[in-house]
Every structure is written in structure tokens, then in C-alpha cells.
Amino acid sequence: MSVEFNLSNIIKAPVVSEKSTVAAEKDNRFVFKVANQATKLQVKKSVELMFNVEVEKVQLLNVKGKTKRFGRFMGKRSDWKKAYVKLKPGHDIDFSAA
Predict the structure, then answer these.
(1) Contact 40, 92 (CB under 8 A)
(2) Binning pLDDT at 50, 70 and 90, where does residue 4 land?
(3) What is the pLDDT of residues 17-70, one digit of tens each?
(4) H/E run at residue 25
(5) Which residues pair with 76 in a beta bridge?
(6) For a FRET experiment, which of 19, 53, 58, 74 has its CA 20 to 30 Å from that of 83?
(7) Exposed, middle or buried: residue 50 (CB in 10 Å: 0-12, 13-18, 19+)?
(8) What domains sit in the chain, N to C, each tagged with a CATH number?
């Protein structure tokens, strides 16, 4: 397995929400759903490789899955990991072109 293949499995999807849009416009900070075992360095390298930008800072947080009712049964949504990626000045990611 090559390094590029492993890094491509780190980022699962961008998180598009009101909060993430405001963060992108105001602080040049983008939000991604990442693999549960991902580290800050892996996230940084994969974002730089996939989007051809320079990353200044990465913050990770674990999002706990909510307990929900499915009909008459109680269930739990999966836990997942979120990454806030701050880009260096002059760099930008355009999701509409991708």
C-alpha cells in the first residue's frame, strides 16, 4: 500500500452546515468528517495532498452518536470524528468546483 492510498482514506466528507460555512468565510477554517483513528498529522497531509493547499492548524474532536428511537426499539447512531482545518492565508478550498 502506498502512502497516498492511506491518506485518501482519512477524509470521508466535508461537513456542510451553517456553522462550518461561517467558519470557512470568517476564519478560513474548513470542517471534515474523518476516519475515527485519524491523527492530526494524517489529516493535515491528506488535506494538503487532496486540495493542494497549505494547512496551518488542525483540531480534532470526537462526536458521540445520539441515542434514538427506531419504532419501538432504542438504537444508537455511530460515533464519528470531526476535523477543523485552518488554512494558511492565501489558500482556499472551493467545494462547488469539485
Answers:
(1) no
(2) low
(3) 999 999 999 999 999 999 999 999 999 999 999 999 999 999 999 999 999 998
(4) helix 18-27
(5) 67
(6) 74
(7) middle
(8) 3-87 (3.30.70.330)
Report pLDDT for 75. 94
Amino acid making up residue 79: D
Quickly state the pLDDT bin for 1 (edges 50, 70, 90): very low
Say how far apart CA 98 and CA 95 lie, in whole Å. Answer: 5
The structure's pTM equals: 0.85
Residue 10 CB partners (closer than 8 Å, separation 6+): 34, 35, 38, 42, 43, 46
Cell of 6: 492511506
